[in-house]
Amino acid sequence: MIIGAGFAGMRLAQKLANGPFQVVLIDRYNYHQFQPLFHQVATSGLAPSAIAFPVRKAFHKTPNFHFRMAEVEQILPEKNVIETSIGEIAYEHLVLATGADTNYFGNKSIATHAYPMKPCFCEITFCSAWKPP
Questions:
Q1: What is the pTM of this model?
Q2: CB atoms near residue 78 (< 10 Å)
Q3: Helix, strand, or coil (residue 91)
Q4: Which of 11, 56, 94, 100 has its CA 20 to 30 A from that of 17?
Q5: What is the pLDDT of residues 62-83, one digit of tens each?
Q6: Kindly report the CA angle at 75 between 93 and 92, in degrees rounded to 5?
Q7: How far apart (Å, rounded) are the C-alpha atoms in residues 93 and 113?
Q8: Read out DSSP for 11-62?
Q9: Beta-carbon neighbour count of residue 17 at 10 Å?
Q10: What domains are defined for the chain?
Q11: Are the beta carbons of 1 and 95 closer than 8 angstroms?
């Protein structure tokens, strides 16, 4: 069981692909984003579709791979169970690859008024709101 479809989660799932076990990847979004190009999307240099692709498409020929689009609500390690927005999912081994969130370094004003760069819909919001000088 891998929680997170960012760089680390996707890479681990690729490494485990076609192995002798089932791989389940959970993420709240059904796509992976290439984060180093977020700034290009935010400034309309690239379309969001140029840096995002469906997780299932990356593994469509992998029979031991399963993707679940869900939000993890709680991890119960004593039961080897994850409670998600789509129900409970049992696991044998668990990897947390949730990545990082936007860091405002404690500045509440920036956190309130700035547009974060994750996920893609935030860049789209920025592009729509930004008026060049």
A1: 0.78
A2: 6
A3: coil
A4: 100
A5: 999 999 999 999 999 999 999 9
A6: 15
A7: 40
A8: HHHHHHTTSSS-EEEEESSSEEE-GGGHHHHHTTSS-GGGTEEEHHHHTTT-
A9: 15
A10: 2-129 (3.50.50.60)
A11: yes
